[in-house]
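User: I'm putting together a teaching handout on how multi-component assemblies are represented. Below are the sequence lines for each component of a complex, exactly as they appear in our records. Could you produce the 3D structure of the whole assembly as structure tokens, so the students can see both representations side by side? Please keep the chain order the same as the input.
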Amino acid sequence: MKKQLGKYSQQIFLFAAMVIVCILLTIRSEYFFTWKNIRNILEAVSYRLILAIGMTFVIASGVMDLSAGSIVSLCGVIMALALHGGMPVPAAVAAGVLLGIALGAVNGLLIHYTGINFFILTLAVSGMLRGISLMITDGKPITKFGQDFIYLGIGRIGEIQLSVLFAACFVLVSVPLMFHMKWGGYVLSLGGNREALVKSGIRAGFYRVTVHALLGAAAAVVAVIITARLNSAEPNAGMNMELDAITAVVMGGTSIKGGKASIAGTALAVLILGVIRNGLTLMSVSSDYQQWITGFLLLVSVLISEIKVYKIKALIK
Amino acid sequence: MKKRILSVLLAVSCMAMVMAGCGGKEDAPEAETAGKEETAEEATAGEDETDAQEEESGAAAMIAGVEEQMNQALGELPETGKGEKIGILISSTSNEFWGTMKTRYEEAAEELGIEVEVFEASAEDDTQGQLDALNTMIPMGFDAIILSPIDGTNLIPGIVAANEEGIPVINLGPGVDMDALADANGHLDGKITVNFEEQGSTVANDMISRMPDGGKVAILAGLEGAGQSVGRTNGATKVFEETEGIELAATQACDWDTEKAYEATKDILTAHPELKGIFACNDNMALAAVRALQEMENKDVMVYGVDYTSDAKAAIEEGTLMGSMTYSSSVYTKAAEEMAMLIVQGKTFEEPVYLPLTLVNQDNVSDFEGWK
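Assistant: Of course. Below is the structure of the complete assembly, with chains in the same order as your input.
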């Protein structure tokens, strides 16, 4: 039992922090703990959660992908052009998602076969993709799509927005995928123990490519949501979105070296950041505080896991 | 093991204290900045009191004149003292212009005896964040919402949601894309704005009046697709194109980004060394252009901006910036709040209400002490 608690200290910290933040906000604002506001929070975090889940897999595999935000932008732009060209909504969305998967897969291939450091490589890809978005659109947003497409961003089934359902699907599928299926196991060992994986004859390249393709798909779904919601595909969309995702993943307890992941931690981190954003808005406090709080949470959360490692080392001695 | 759990608890409680402290000081930073601004204003007022008493009353008279025009445009004045609660959504106080607007909104609300709360996005290009803020405002029980969207479409889902709740929506400044809003079955209840094309054309006319021999000019536009940028660019472009001897050498979108404006200025100057004038669609970009020109030791290019920020004012007085478009932000915000009150009290506005505009340049800047 105690061991379990120790293992999940980061998630426990986030959960406790969230409960405290929620209690404080409920006391300070009469609007915080209302269904409408909670619905707003869920809708605002939905797309961030989707990208962060994709990023959790990539970080679990021992690398990072700095091009995710640019993939969001390019997929949005391509979908917008397809829609303006008269393509039906399902076809345009499928094209966008396929493009996302392809771009992700290319990242995976490049990382696996060139051996260039993933940080440099995805940074370069990010710049190129953002540049393509800007070149295609001439820097201007592409706006106005039919109601059918907009529905994907703001439509609701009952009280629940589609984007929230998409995010829930991502979470529900990712847990068994990561922890109960061979694929997830190999992705984790790709990060934790790559040599053993290769020695046992597993094709590391396949897992490297598919894990990035999954992030590409997540980025494309994010593109669908934000393009539909804003009724506008902007070449600057998704700027720094990958950094927010990486922050949430690391805050949630996924090891930056790979090999250890927590979907629940990622979800908690995305949620608490969303609650804080919402709370600051409710109290009309300057959003400058948000950055400070995000940094502080990240620091404390990571410190807790580091203290753990230090203690274990001390025990071994 | 207990220690480990203890350390977690310790971190959590530390976190809680920070959050609590942060919440408690909620109003402090704003109060502080407001205070600073006041002292700054008093200081400037004090400096000029001895030798510029007349000028200051001149500015006050100008403001009164603009307010008079504005009241005529509104048609009637609202009943005060009903304590309406109005939510205001601006772009981001990271731009000084919106920081000033926020202060003016709060001052005007005090004068009118209403309650306002001002919300914002984290940055001037955070379209999604601004929509999130609007969605957060809707259940907060406001009698009306005044909003200034970052681009034409980003707030539309929120406006539709406000319509559904029966909250009147007034659009101040940069416009909502009316076609896209109609497509989404949304509507605005009022619109108060400056004529952005007029800002561009006024600057362009002043610029060419200082270029008797004609020559090349350039425009540094803002974020592509943003209403202010498009309007100002179009207004100026029209004047430049219609004037014989003036060549519009370049129009570069710099996304309100000073770094981009700085680089664009250098690039344009490299391509067109004989350039005579630059119109930047806001002062931040204009001042970046001024810095680039200073670095290139170019003293021949006239730079104009829009917004008349305090930095721009200093630069005009120094003679590095030629001019900047302004309007009275105190009248603007007050008129928007009066419009919101009138709508809450049952009046309807079919047509947009326009705010009178003024150009400050090196010749008349001394008349503008105390202008707000």
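A couple of points students might notice: The radius of gyration of chain B is 23 Å. The CA atoms of residues 16 and 22 of chain B lie 10 Å apart.
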